[in-house]
Amino acid sequence: MSEKYEAHETSKQEISITKESVEGLMETVRRLYLADDIPWVIGYSGGKDSTATLQLVWLALKDLPKYKFRKKIHIINTDTLVESPVVSQWVKRSLQILDEAAQEQGLPFVTHRLTPEMDNTYWVNFIGRGYPFPRKQLRWCTDRLKIQPVNNFVKNKIAEHGEIILVIGTRKAESANRARTMTYYEKLRVRELLSPSQTMANELVFTPLENWNDNDVWVFLMQYTNPWGYSNKELLTLYRGATADGECPMMVEKGLPSCGKSRFGCWVCTMVEKDKSMEAMIANDEEKAWLAPLLEFRNKFGDETKDRERRSFRKMTGALFGSYKQLHHGPYKKEIREEWLRDLLSIQKEINENAPNEFKDLELISLPELRNIRRIWVFEKHEFDDALPRIYEEVIGKPFDDPEWTASEDFRKNEWDILKDVVNELYPDEELAFEMAYSLIDTENQSKSLNKRRGVLQGLEDCIKKTFYKNEEDATNYYMNKMVRKKELGGKYNEKALDDTYDEADAEEEEQ
């Protein structure tokens, strides 16, 4: 490694690290590690920043005498269960190799794969409960899929040890907002290089790469051999494959961007207009053409122009809420949720049959998730036709395995179809008449089968309150008249609902 990497630079981000600065940083890592008995937790995603962070710590500690390893270093990886399959496979292999290498080298690293609770995953919320796809005003995914699993792990370690030090690869050069936040918490540091956590007491944060730019990260990864035996060159290839033009001109030609701007994340992510990394992977490598159905599915359900018509005009609880003469829509309708599930299972089957061998057993949605979705549909949404096992068998070609299922068999698909035909014939213009009928029947039946008569009258009343509207127009008029009455009587009311200065486009923007 040369003293200064002047031969490898770009006009945008020159190389700022030197051999001496890296070795000095390693000495800082050693000093912090040996200073106390507080365990470390390193966040590892498998990407370039977290890999460089872990590699720096590993190299700093690998030559220490074994008796000085008085505390564990926990390597945590959060698997949202909807990660890009290619990246997810990469990370799973790396965690296995990390564990093996740590044992062989006698180092205090131990890996942990964190996942969301099975009743709170992306698919359980999206397909099961019918949550609208995440967007800026309704970003329900990050907390459930990423933050909660990490916080639960950290809380357990804090409860066990009283305090932890979180080591992450956050860098100021990532964005102006990130730089401002990091600079602010630098001022609050209680110990050398250790900032207080933004969200949790008794958690200190160490960001060893805070002053590095993208080029610094790549130079470090290329110049220092990965100490646990994983290939940093393969990581570079992975980033190159996720770059639109298939190039990764890292620190070679001036004026060209580095690979560092590629972002890997959830393949279902609708927080961005396009999944550019997956698009690039498919375009740059024929062997990754099997990813195309995932991209198409994501674009299909992420189409905001069609989203309103796919959702109920009531909220999850059945309540109405609106603004600018229009109701805000709530969860996805039954037929839409079933369509999403059928599409997802079909893609999973196609991948299992046609993808490379290493993805033959890929699960886009797991059995525990499917079982949770089934329970939400039948017990919470009263959809006693129990469609999930039927959809699963039709698509996958084998019976749905659910050994703990104990629901009453009094009413199922045949009874559902008969009831639907009768209600639709009697009330052809009543949009919610069938939902009212099956909800009332199932509420009564659940109380009978579970021997829980207490509260059944309230349950029946709730069903009626949710479904007594003729259609969306009727519900809108009911809600707006309610706001008018509240205003006239001097009560608290939703002013936006009665605002005549906004049109339909404004209302849709407000809802999104």
Shape: elongated
CATH architecture of the domain at 19-241: 3-Layer(aba) Sandwich
Can you count the helices?
A: 18
Gap from first CA to last CA = 51 Å
Which segments are poorly predicted (pLDDT under 50) over 5 or more consecutive residues? 1-11, 245-262
Mean pLDDT: 85
| Percent helix | 40-55%
CATH homology superfamily name of the domain at 19-241: HUPs
User: Which CATH C-level class of the domain at 19-241 is it?
Assistant: Alpha Beta
Beta-strand share of residues: 5-15%
Which class of secondary structure composition applies to the elements? alpha/beta
CATH fold label of the domain at 19-241:
Rossmann fold
Gyration radius (Cα, Å) is 27 Å
Biggest sheet overview: 6 strands, mixed
Largest sheet, order of strands side by side?
3-2-1-4-6-5
Number of strands: 8
Order of helices and strands: HEHEHEHHEHEEHHHHEEHHHHHHHH
Give structural notes.
α1 (19-34) packs across α2 and α14 runs antiparallel to α15. The protein contains 18 helices and 8 strands. It has helices at 19-34, 48-61, 85-105, 122-129, 141-161, 176-186, 214-223, 232-241, 276-284, 292-301, 334-354, 367-380, 387-396, 413-426, 433-449, 456-467, 472-488, 504-511, and strands at 40-43, 73-78, 109-114, 164-167, 194-196, 203-206, 322-323, 326-327. It is 47% helix and 6% strand. Among the domains are: 19-241, 3-Layer(aba) Sandwich (Rossmann fold); 333-407, no CATH class; 413-470, no CATH class. The longest helix has 21 residues, at 85-105. Residues 1-11 and 245-262 have low confidence and may be disordered. A hairpin with a 2-residue loop joins β7 (322-323) and β8 (326-327). The strands form 2 sheets. Strands 3-2-1-4-6-5 form a 6-stranded mixed β-sheet, sandwiched between helices. Strands 7-8 form a two-stranded antiparallel sheet. It is an alpha/beta fold and 512 residues long.
